[in-house]
Amino acid sequence: MGGDVVHCDIHLRGLAVVVAWNDHDHHMRHTELDIDLHLDTANNQALFTLGRSVLGQDLRRPINLFLFIYPESIESLEFEADVRLPTSAILDHQPPAILDHQPHQRFGCLRFVTSRSLDFIGPQDPPLEEFRDVFHTMNALSLVLNFNIYFNMSPIQPELLRQISSFPSLFSPTNRRLETDVRRADLRTLYGGLGGRRINTVLSPASSALPGNGTEEEVTTAEKAANVGLQRPAHTSTPPGRKRQSR
Questions:
Q1: Which residues does the annotated region (Disordered) include (predicted)?
Q2: Is residue 235 situated within a structural domain?
Q3: What domain count does the chain have?
């Protein structure tokens, strides 16, 4: 990487965020998630993960749902400090948790442009019907290529903010691309060793269908169109342009 790029060693877990995007009808949508940021320039590895936990009446423990953002798919990543939250989030009937109304509260924004949709990861037998609204929202987000992530800057240490502010240079076209941290992206390690799977709907973004809906022909045709050039083993989630290393 270029000499002007700051060294980053970030392992930030469970940061509460608001994610905003425009749907296919150009309406602003938003949702509250947590983000894990893992980025190590010394090893040239990274993985960003958006997540949410759900707990149903018949479940003994929460189920975590994830959206994987692979570094190879990030076309650009901008950081802006001291921004306003989306109006739709502020005026929501239940304001987001990061809006805690403390004095001198400051918000930052990470603006992503990706070359492909995100991988929506869940357990082998996801409770689709019980959490239909959650799955619809996360699936809709997984299909967009432009989205903004807002977070409260106030509790974050200055050194960590300095490293986050360097993200635009790390993902600029002039720098060598970071590669996916394959250990963290290995789906076999999720859910207590039971493994996770990719559960993105393979239908069009305009569809509200969940995985498993639609005819077999519709699903097969759409899946082929969505995954041209991508060969994914059932138990892994491999980023584009990268072959899995032998373990």
A1: 205-247
A2: no
A3: 1
